[in-house]
Design a protein that fits this description.
alpha+beta, four-stranded antiparallel sheet, 41% helix, 5 helices
């Protein structure tokens, strides 16, 4: 479900009195609350040499895919840790998963695991390619694996950078 579809669904649930602008404002407020919560739980030592936009793009695409391919009532979990001089970001879900034969290809431009379903859900097949390129450009690594119990786990790691000290 893309943002426009979500807003229409929200309007349908709340009634016709809600304008698209009001629904979008509500959605943005929820997303900002989530973003603050995620930032507040981040380890202060988890500094990487990347722009805020790069980190946002990586997390947004991985979490959006998790939400898209997970049934209602499922989950998408994220974690950030520092391990042996590397900042490790993990995004896992209990969604439909990715077949083993497709995993080596998911970071290729325009690659779609299930073409028929992808047309229904939306997207261009560029999200994971952009994530992979961004991670590599910033000196990181990205991996994907099946999650025990179903779903997918993406692991992104970057060399740990020294946090900037502001006076």
């Amino acid at each position: 479900m893309n943002k426009t579809q979500f807003i229409r669904e929200l309007q349908r649930e709340l009634g016709n009195d809600v304008t698209s602008r009001q629904a979008e404002h509500a959605l943005n407020a929820v997303l900002e609350t989530i973003a603050r919560a995620v930032r507040s739980r981040a380890d202060e030592a988890a500094a990487v040499r990347a722009t805020e936009g790069d980190v946002h793009q990586i997390l947004y695409n991985l979490m959006e895919n998790g939400v898209k391919y997970t049934a209602p009532g499922g989950f998408v979990h994220t974690s950030v840790s520092v391990e042996e001089g590397r900042v490790v970001i993990t995004v896992s879900d209990n969604g439909i998963g990715i077949p083993a034969e497709d995993m080596p290809h998911i970071f290729e431009r325009f690659y779609r695991v299930d073409k028929a379903r992808s047309r229904q859900i939306g997207g261009t097949g560029l999200g994971l390619s952009i994530v992979g390129d961004t991670v590599q450009r910033r000196g990181g690594e990205i991996g994907v694996a099946p999650r025990k119990g179903g779903g997918t786990v993406f692991t992104v790691s970057f060399p740990q950078a020294e946090p900037e000290v502001t006076a």
